[in-house]
Specification:
The protein has helices at 2-73, 77-94, 127-139, 184-192, 197-201; strands at 100-110, 144-147, 150-152, 158-161, 164-167, 170-172, 176-181, 207-218, 224-229, 232-237. It is an alpha+beta fold and 238 residues long. It has a domain at 101-218: Protein of unknown function DUF881 (Alpha-Beta Plaits, 2-Layer Sandwich).
Length: 238
């Protein structure tokens, strides 16, 4: 009886182990199947997105090739010329070569009128102070910015030569008037944000006023712009 009892117990253990192994196998198989299906779904969605982007690029290329072919063949010359002129105007606007008018803010920065001792330069408006204001305006979505009539573009420089501020290589003096086109409420809030540029300059007595205006004029960039392309150099004056 003892031997039979051990044999039965061993048989039951083997059967139990077989069941456990079977369950684990089925579970792992199902998990792998789910993972593969999920991965397949992701790859299908990615492929569809790439195909759509590729189709859009092909359509855009076809449009441009048609414009070039019409231009070369002298067909639809008026429409082609109009498209080229439109693109040129867009590039001029983007490059700051055209005057822009719109709602926005006018920020006036002036040297401190009350000096409390110490380094007198600390109470003057410096290039880095002006740049801090411009950076805040740009981050807040300003479409165009100028300083005392000097348009700020990608190649602009704002620097100090001693106590003198230079913008686009031109000397400008306080008070500094910064004109910016954009959402006036957002531009103003960006400058008056607690701990922002206005708060940082307040201890030094730097005078800053911000006016929201319905019509702000930002003049064009008037310096010579040099465009370089392989084998080609072209000067454009705003």
């Amino acid at each position: 009886m003892g031997k039979n009892h051990h044999f039965v117990a061993l048989t039951l253990i083997c059967v139990l182990l077989g069941v456990i192994i079977g369950v684990q196998y089925n579970t792992v198989k199902k998990q792998n199947s789910l993972t593969e299906n999920q991965r397949l779904t992701e790859l299908t969605a990615t492929l569809k997105k790439v195909q759509e982007e590729n189709k859009a690029l092909e359509n855009h290329l076809e449009e441009k090739e048609k414009i070039i072919k019409d231009y070369e063949n002298g067909l639809n010359y008026g429409a082609t010329l109009s498209n080229l002129q439109s693109e040129i105007e867009q590039l001029r606007t983007f490059s700051g070569l055209t005057e822009i008018t719109g709602s926005g803010v006018v920020v006036t920065m002036n040297d401190s009128s009350t000096k409390k001792g110490g380094d007198s330069n600390a109470y003057l408006v410096h290039a880095e102070d002006i740049l801090s204001v411009i950076n805040e305006l740009n981050v807040a979505g300003a479409e165009a910015v100028s300083i005392n009539g000097q348009r700020i573009v990608g190649t602009s420089s704002v620097s100090c030569a001693g106590s003198i501020v230079m913008v686009n290589g031109e000397r400008v003096a306080a008070p500094f008037e910064i004109a910016a086109i954009g959402d006036g409420d957002i531009l103003q809030s960006a400058l008056k944000f607690p701990g922002g540029v206005v708060d940082n300059l307040a201890p030094w007595g730097i005078e800053i006023t911000i006016r929201k205006e319905a019509s702000v004029v930002v003049p064009p960039y008037t310096q010579t712009v040099l465009f370089k392309a392989p084998g080609v150099e072209q000067e454009v004056v705003g």
